[in-house]
Amino acid sequence: MNNLDRRRFLQSASLALAGGYAQAVFGKTLGEMPTFAQRPTFKPTALFLTWQRDPTTTMTIQWIGSETDAAQRPVWYARKGSQLWRKQEYSTRRFPISDHWIFRAELTGLEPGEDYNFRIGTDSSEQQFRTMPAKDTNPIQFVSGGDSGTGAAPRHSNRLAAAQSPDFVILGGDLAYEDGEHPDRFLEFLDNYSNDCRDGQRLIPMVACIGNHEVVGGYEEGRTQAPFFYSVFDGLFPDTGYAALDFGQYMSLVFLDTNHTSPIDGAQTDWLARTLKEREDCPNVFAINHVPAYPSHRAFGTVDQPGTGAGNRKHWVPLFERYNVDAVLEHHDHTYKRTHPLLDGRPNEKGVLYLGDGSWGKIRKPTDMDNRPYLAVAAESYHVSVHRIEGRQQFHVALSDAGRVVDVCTSTKRGGTRRG
Ligand SMILES: [Fe+2]
Ligand SMILES: [Fe+2]
């Protein structure tokens, strides 16, 4: 055995020993010491992170390429500062209406609150991700918005979001405006996000709910009519357009489908009631949906002619109030809006906050505020929202496209006393 072989053998042996337990439990391949290229020659297209299970211990990595791109390029990952490289193979699926493929690798059994290095194969550059902490003893910070599209404005919002070094980004529908039928547009949106939403080498995970522009026809369709959204997010949404993502015991994101591929009433409302009840003791619960319960641009409607958000107001708002949802992030109207805390549509300091209204990359003039007593703020302004959870306080800060703080409000962690 020459020196090089001997060193490799010893490395492999120590890796196998160190990782033996994890290999048995988590089914990972261990013990192979990758030789990474000194100069990267491969750049994965639209490489981005998302979650399908608890963000404290998992990470889902996806990218898009030709069928032969991925065969020799598993994901290699190791905790920052460690040389214990592990390998994860992909599940693959077709990128709809194209010759491309989606490569997905879910990493599980990760350490909470840790930085990891990873690479796509051995010939691409090193990237990083961070798992969410096991507890919210330190501040948690994330960014939200909706109605992105492609082009200069959403890319500016992407970079503004990334500059906040958020743990992750939530996009509340109308992501690419590909309308379920334009693969190039969806790919461009993902690639923009991949290039823009980075904090140094760290990729910032994206979670999302479905909007009308994900769907051929927009409303009351089946999942097959939203082929692009489900092609990359069906890990979190395997059967329906709604799902909950639980961060350990301290935060839950409840994603809803405002009648795009799942009706508002019936099964989804029953699920929402169960889901919120089960999370009554969780200190931070945020609902995310696309069409707003309390619109800032479109018609609210009357009793005879229910307008935008009537279904949410009838079926979901009573549940948000009963189970003390901390804030509802809702979009679709292309403005910046914040409501007063609301109970049954009326300002009440014990009420629920509704933040939106989808101006990551699209913009419209809001309606006259005098007609909408539920609105605290409405503005024709591109914006991203920064949410910071610090102890019992939740801070919500709206940043304009100039990076200026245009609005700040706080909510308090639910104490279990604000029952509707
Ligand atoms: Fe939109
Ligand atoms: Fe929309």
How do the strands and helices of this protein lay out in sequence?
Layout: H1 3-26, E1 45-50, E2 59-65, E3 75-79, E4 86-88, E5 91-94, E6 101-107, E7 115-120, E8 127-130, E9 140-145, H2 152-162, E10 168-172, H3 183-196, E11 198-199, E12 202-203, E13 206-209, H4 227-233, E14 243-247, E15 251-255, H5 267-278, E16 285-289, H6 310-322, E17 327-330, E18 336-339, E19 342-343, E20 346-347, E21 353-356, E22 375-379, E23 383-390, E24 393-400, E25 405-412
Parallel strand pairs: 9-10, 10-13, 15-16, 16-17, 17-21
Antiparallel strand pairs: 1-2, 2-6, 3-4, 3-7, 5-6, 7-8, 9-23, 11-12, 14-15, 18-21, 18-22, 19-20, 23-24, 24-25
The protein binds fe (ii) ion (2 copies).
Do you know the CATH architecture of the largest domain? Answer: 4-Layer Sandwich
- Widest beta sheet: strand line-up: 14-15-16-17-21-18-22
- Provide the CATH topology of the largest domain: Purple Acid Phosphatase, chain A, domain 2
The global form is: globular
The radius of gyration is 22 Å
Instruction: Report the end-to-end length measured between terminal Cα atoms.
Output: 74 Å
Number of domains: 2
| Distinct small-molecule ligands in the complex | fe (ii) ion
State the fourth-level CATH superfamily of the largest domain: Metallo-dependent phosphatases
Question: Main beta sheet, described?
Answer: 7 strands, mixed
CATH class of the largest domain: Alpha Beta
Share of helix among residues? 10-25%
The structural class is: alpha+beta
Record field, number of beta strands: 25
Kindly report the oligomeric state of this protein. Answer: single chain
Sequence stretches where pLDDT stays below 50 over 5 or more residues = 1-27, 415-420
Mean pLDDT across residues:
91
Q: Count helical runs.
A: 6
Task: Give the strand content.
Answer: 25-35%
